[in-house]
Amino acid sequence: MASVNKVILVGNCGRDPEIRYLPSGQAVANVSVATSSRRKDKNTGETIEDTQWHRVTFYDRLAEIAGEYVKKGQPIYVEGRLKYGKFTNKDGHEQNTVDIIATEMQLLGKREGMGGPSDDEGSAPRRAAPAPRQAPSAPAPRQAPAKASSGFDDMDDDIPF
To answer: Residue 75: beta bridge partners?
Structure first.
């Protein structure tokens, strides 16, 4: 049976990415992403906000793009998988970790550098990786003119939806 390990986050970056390179030359970037949910307390009627922090790791070209364009406070969409780990802290206690290994990323919010009020940082792409370019193709052949009757002329206009 197949299994699925997929995470989708939409949240705000908690800090600028930290980018480093492994001895193999592979780029690695780490960032924290905050997601929030709100609910009303039944007893007081007060709105309670619950914020969760997620550690996200980008690799290779995605890490380089994140390092260049992702900024603290920026809304971001991240897709990836969960990776669990353990380490021993300086007190000798074993602690568990949960990381999101990102496979896709998209910057959200308005574009900077497009004539808006916060036009001081230059232009940033909305997508992490540009869509592949397609080679120019020949113009599409002309279609034959539509027939006079579409076959729907005799149907009632009383559609229930």
So the answer is: 12
How many helices and strands, by DSSP H and E, does the chain display?
Answer: 1, 6
For 68, list phi and psi in degrees, rounded to 5: -85, -40
DSSP string over 92-158: S-EEEEEEEEEEEEEE-SPPTTSSSS--SS----SBSSPPPPPPP-PPPPPPPPPPS--S-TTS-S-
CATH class of 7-107: mainly beta
pLDDT at 156: 54
Q: Which residues pair with 50 in a beta bridge?
A: 37
Cα angle vertex 41, ends 35, 44, to 5°? 140
CB 127 within 8 Å of CB 76: no
Taking residues 128-152, report their average pLDDT. Answer: 47
**pLDDT value of position 57:** 94
pLDDT digit string, tens, across residues 89-139:
899 899 999 999 999 999 987 766 444 444 444 444 444 444 444 444 444
Query: Structure tokens of 106?
Result: 């998209």
Q: Is the pTM of this model over 0.85?
A: no
Q: How far apart are CA 38 and CA 153, in angstroms?
A: 51
